[in-house]
């Protein structure tokens, strides 16, 4: 059976859809299989953090998202400690975008389809086998498909990960929490007073205004029945009365959900021709709103590398760098969510640590460090010794006739040259050249990977050629 497509992606959530679109930028044949036939019936609001907004800007998608979302200050994320956003965050998109998750999924899927990806709904991966040439995928209805690679973006209960035999170690849930958006009949002053009273002993409890008359409600799920069943409005009322002594007259839910604090990380992100991304690779509590963002950022890191492998120009270690770069990032996210959950605990020890951290976060540098961690703009991949900018993402700076990210829509590398003396030579089919002496850059030149991370800094052509080979393979003849 010959490979009928280059990559099959299991799951068409934000990670799978984004990966499909990234692969299509390089002409890779992509088939996305999504087990659900219809979008989720509930409209959950998610937050796109700074780094995700930057990546959307790099692909020309940000304006469409901004039109359907609501900007919020980039502060107060860490364990819901009410610190303001730090001043002068190093980004042109230094805010949180609150947006319905179905809008994000629909926009990214539409983007993938318009780019040429094929998406099939109501189709689930049941099994697969791989060999030296590709992967044979068996669907739930018995149909068999062939591709060169398979990527599991099929969530925390990933069939691909389980069939691949990759361990998913970590900690099971200790606590369960109800979260939803509901309208509330009680006066705002009464709500604020009661929340302040309850939070003296239970920091995980909250009712937060969320616009349009709705409140984001977070309350312990203790005693609520089977976790496999979706929570009901009555579940929320009962738990609110038990914790706060009133149900605040909650009604007309927009969405209701339940989550635990399970924390798990896949032992490997790649086995041969099968890879994992998004929730299939990592699971953690939603505190700080990092989950969707982490998955989308996985897709940006993987897309161009997998495309290079298929196109035949990838250096030997390029595809493996997906795991070596993204696995440590997920480890850090798991650790910061563990820390945040501890800070929401009711015990005297966690409450004392929370009071101490509340004092410390008033210092600008502490606040900035935590925000950069959660929003992912503090990530620095290990590219070897060099200036601090090396391995970090390049912010969206002013360049000739516009902005830097506007020049990255095609998903290629980019050499930003302030000297006017350098060239990309035989790599011009993979790397664009922008010669701009007036660019808002404090170094002579930078070489950017397609995901916007700085792969080289300098002004020497021979040194540049070595780094072009490291990241973009041998030059074309």
From TrEMBL:
Q: Per the record, a Pfam family? A: FAD_binding_3
- Keyword Flavoprotein listed? The answer is yes
* InterPro entries with a match to the protein in the record: FAD-bd, FAD/NAD-bd_sf, RIFMO-like
Is-annotated flag, keyword Flavoprotein? yes
Lineage, opening ranks? Bacteria, Bacillati, Actinomycetota, Actinomycetes, Glycomycetales
Kindly list the cofactors needed: FAD
- Know the name of this protein? 2-polyprenyl-6-methoxyphenol hydroxylase
Outline the extent of the FAD-binding domain: 5-337
Q: Which keywords fit this entry according to its UniProt record?
A: FAD, Flavoprotein
GO terms assigned for molecular function: FAD binding; oxidoreductase activity, acting on paired donors, with incorporation or reduction of molecular oxygen, NAD(P)H as one donor, and incorporation of one atom of oxygen
């Amino acid at each position: 059976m010959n490979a009928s497509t280059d990559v099959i992606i299991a799951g068409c959530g934000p990670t799978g859809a984004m990966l499909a679109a990234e692969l299509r930028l390089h002409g890779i044949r992509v088939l996305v299989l999504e087990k659900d036939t219809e979008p989720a019936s509930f409209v959950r609001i998610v937050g796109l953090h700074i780094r995700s907004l930057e990546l959307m800007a790099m692909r020309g998608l940000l304006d469409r998202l901004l039109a359907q979302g609501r900007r919020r200050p980039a502060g107060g994320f860490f364990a819901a400690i009410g610190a303001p956003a730090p001043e002068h965050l190093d980004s042109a998109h230094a805010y949180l975008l609150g947006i319905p998750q179905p809008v994000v999924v629909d926009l990214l899927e539409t983007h993938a389809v318009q780019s040429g990806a094929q998406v099939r709904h109501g189709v689930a991966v049941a099994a697969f086998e791989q060999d030296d040439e590709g992967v044979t995928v068996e669907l739930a209805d018995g149909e068999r498909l062939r591709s060169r690679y398979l990527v599991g973006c099929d969530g925390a209960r990933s069939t691909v990960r389980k069939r691949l035999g990759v361990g998913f170690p970590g900690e099971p849930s200790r606590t369960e929490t109800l979260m939803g958006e509901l309208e509330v009949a009680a006066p705002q002053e009464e709500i604020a007073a009661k929340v302040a009273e309850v939070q003296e002993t239970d920091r995980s409890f909250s009712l937060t205004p969320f616009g349009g008359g709705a409140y984001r409600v977070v309350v312990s799920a203790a005693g609520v029945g089977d976790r496999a069943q979706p929570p009901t409005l009555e579940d929320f009322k009962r738990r609110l009365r038990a914790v706060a002594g009133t149900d605040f007259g909650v009604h007309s839910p927009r969405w209701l959900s339940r989550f635990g604090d399970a924390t798990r990380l896949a032992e490997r992100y790649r086995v041969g021709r099968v890879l994992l991304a998004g929730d299939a690779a990592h699971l953690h509590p939603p505190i700080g709103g990092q989950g969707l963002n982490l998955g989308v950022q996985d897709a940006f890191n993987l897309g161009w590398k997998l495309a290079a492998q298929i196109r035949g120009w990838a250096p030997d270690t390029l595809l493996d760098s997906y795991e070596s770069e993204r696995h440590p990032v997920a480890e850090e996210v798991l650790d910061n969510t563990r820390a945040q959950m501890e800070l929401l605990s009711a015990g005297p020890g966690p409450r004392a640590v929370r009071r101490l951290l509340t004092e410390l976060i008033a210092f600008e540098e502490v606040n900035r460090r935590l925000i950069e961690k959660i929003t992912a703009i503090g990530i620095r991949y290990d590219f070897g010794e060099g200036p601090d900018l090396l391995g970090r993402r390049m912010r969206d700076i002013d360049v000739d006739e516009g902005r830097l990210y506007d020049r990255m829509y095609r998903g290629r590398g980019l050499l930003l040259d302030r000297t006017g003396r350098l060239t990309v030579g035989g790599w011009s089919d993979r790397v664009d050249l922008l010669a701009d002496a007036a660019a808002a850059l404090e170094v002579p030149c930078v070489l950017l990977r397609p995901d916007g991370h700085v792969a080289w800094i300098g002004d020497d052509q021979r040194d540049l050629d070595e780094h072009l080979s490291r990241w973009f393979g041998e030059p074309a003849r």
